[in-house]
Amino acid sequence: MTAEMISDHEFSLFQELMHTLAGVYLPPNKKSLVWTRLSRRLRDLDMNCLGDYFRSINSGRNPLELQRAVDLLTTHETYFFREPQHFDFLVTPILSAPRTGNDFRVWSAASSTGEEAYSIAMLLMQQLGATQSWQVFGSDISIDAVEKARAGIYRTQRIEHMPDGYLQRYCLRGIGREEGTLRIKDEVIGHVRFAQINLNRPLPDIGTFDVIFLRNVLIYFDTPTRQQVVERLVQRLKPKGWLFIGHSENLGNVTTSLRQCQPSIYRRT
Ligand SMILES: C[S@@+](CC[C@H](N)C(=O)[O-])C[C@H]1O[C@@H](n2cnc3c(N)ncnc32)[C@H](O)[C@@H]1O
Prior knowledge:
Layout: H1 8-22, H2 31-44, H3 50-58, H4 63-73, H5 84-95, E1 103-108, H6 115-128, E2 133-140, H7 143-151, E3 153-155, H8 166-170, E4 171-173, E5 181-184, H9 186-189, E6 192-196, E7 209-214, H10 223-234, E8 237-245, E9 258-262, E10 265-268
Parallel strand pairs: 1-2, 1-7, 2-6, 7-8
Antiparallel strand pairs: 3-5, 4-5, 8-10, 9-10
């Protein structure tokens, strides 16, 4: 499978599609990645031309296949307790400060397959317990990722960054045919809800949050999209709420409604 099997024109069609739909900018060096990700799908559908595949998903008559293409063309790399400084910051100063409201809500706004949302939930279970009211909401544009997140089942190779004790306390190890997997315990899953949400569109009514994790997704957006997405999310932060972005990301001048407290940590003014 080589990049030559996708023409510049075909690549530009998918580039435009992903930008219009998801706000995702696919730079020219992603040409072979687009081919690699779509070619298997083409084989499954017994098609041999990306142009035909594009026309079928762009016709408006095949929304499920269009979603499938979006799922394939978005990058879902994630793992438990990624960028641990944010989890430390959640404990101190956020959770250690006196709180006014009685419901603590965190949104993992590009939750991929759920590892980020469950990392937050395990930490909140540890810090706040089952008696206090708290919720984690996870969302992603990819339906496939959201379904995997809802299942809460992972390969055990994925847990290397999980702090000691969390595995025993909040996960069940698979046995027999499920050997090599772990399942998040129901007591944690019960606090977590997932939905498919496209951050590049007006947001549904999901309430407001004390903390929003918007990590490792802004890198895929161009500056105007980044600006719109951040403005949209800031409206969903409670007053003085916190926004975390990935350590390799930068808000630059995208919003005046946030004050930077540390690199990658912002607070609503
Ligand atoms: C690299 S993962 C980041 C996962 C997690 N936040 C982390 O930091 O480990 C990026 C996720 O952003 C999602 N994504 C891309 N564009 C999106 C959009 N417009 N709306 C919602 N999610 C989007 C992708 O589907 C993917 O699951």
